[in-house]
Amino acid sequence: MDAFICTACGTQYPPSQTAPAQCTICEDERQFIPPRGQTWTTLPALAAGHFNGWRQHEPGIIGIGTQPQFAIGQRALLISTPNGNVLWDCVSMLDAATVALIKALGGLSAIAISHPHFYTTMSEWSRAFGGVPVHLHAADERWIMRPDPCVKLWQGETLSLLPDDQREALILIGAGGFSYEEVTKEEGAKKNSIYNLHNGIFTRGILIDIPRLKGVAYLEPGTRIFIDDIEAWEKQAGIKVAAGDAVFIRTGRWARRAKSGPWNAGVETAGLDPSVLPWLKRRDVSILGSETAQDATPPPATSELGPLALHDFALIVLGIPLMDDTNLEAVSEAAAARKRWEFLLTASPLPVTNGTGSPLNPIAVF
Asked: How far apart are CA 291 and CA 253, in angstroms?
């Protein structure tokens, strides 16, 4: 019998005579079913038209991604340590070439997975390398679609994977937070809701005007903004983003719309590249605003990240409140007239108890 794999999310199900009627992962409201509907494949069928590509991100860390892209474009990381190799996350595609290459690099001592979207064919990966343990956090147990003895559930905040030498140990860290299931349609967000800002926002705002930096009226859709661009603007404008600042990234979206008419900005738009994330952390930015949902879209064809990688990471992991789809034209004109790119930002979100967001009318005072 075949172990069918969902082509939308890459999750493998237990062997069966026929494909499952539906995919539990895809039926979750945060996931989607493609326009073609729910379809299925198997490992042999997948291998017939796909292969795994390899990229060394830095010594000891090699990325593994399937080409052409499959499911949601998952990637895995092969992490080499003096105590053995660990596979961080999984991709659905597993063939003889992948097994041979990893074995030539020392094989695997363990597999650890961060999120249910990377469970994919985890039991196949385990068996291919001698039944190595697959470590999943117990909080995500319900999303295991193919139970297997190789799965080892862990709890708490940390787990040492290779404890032979604590100086070199790889340690899994539960990043905290809380389950999405605590945010419901009936009760909203009982933690970290927009109500936390009910006293208002009062801080320094800084406009990063990338079209002015480049001498154009607006950036073309798809243009990516990097750390070098932001720091070049700081130098030109004579300002520097500091801890607690609210940073607004102007791309000229609304200037382009006024000249050329509307387009589907949800598909293609200028914005930040995910490589800016460490800069946001280092500068301790308190609020991030942009004329889009922050990210440049679409991501490059070779990218292993989703279309809103920066948006999601900044909001969920860094905890930075976001102001999406702001119109920065008036602020840009006022700042240029004064040659002053910092201002007092005030804003008053609606005090919605347990609300996940709010309409907003931010005001820049020069």
From this structure: 6
Bridge-based pairing state of the strands 287-290 and 246-250? parallel
Question: CA geometry: angle at 304 spanning 151 and 71, to 5°?
Answer: 65
* 51-79 pLDDT tens trace: 999 999 889 999 999 999 999 889 999 99
User: Hey, is 311 helix, strand or coil?
Assistant: helix
Dihedral sign for Cα 345, 350, 352, 356, please: negative
Do 331 and 207 form a contact (C-beta atoms < 8 A)?
Answer: yes
What is the three-state SS of 280-297? HHHHCCCEEEECCCCECE
In the chain, which residue ranges form alpha helices assigned H by DSSP?
Answer: 24-27, 43-49, 96-104, 122-128, 210-214, 227-237, 253-260, 277-283, 309-316, 329-338
Give residue for tokens 């020392």.
Answer: 106
Just give the CATH number of 194-365: 3.50.30.50
Predicted local confidence at residue 273, as pLDDT: 95
- How is residue 84 written in tokens? 């053995």
- The residue assigned the tokens 């961060």 is 114
Q: Does the model's pTM come out above 0.85?
A: no
For 5-176, give the CATH class: alpha beta
Distance of alpha carbon 303 from alpha carbon 55, whole angstroms: 11
Token digits for 282?
Answer: 């280092």
Identical topology for domains 5-176 and 194-365: no
Amino acid at 172: L
Cis peptide before 68, with omega less than 30 degrees from 0? yes
Burial class of residue 209 (count of CB atoms within 10 Å of its CB; 0-12, 13-18, 19+): buried
Interatomic CA distance for residues 210 and 217, integer angstroms? 10
φ, ψ dihedrals at 222, nearest 5°:
95, -15
Selection from 295, 302, 289, 248 nearest residue 273 by Cα:
295
Pairing relation of β-strands 342-347 and 201-209? antiparallel
Name the residue ranges covered by the structural domains of the chain.
5-176, 194-365
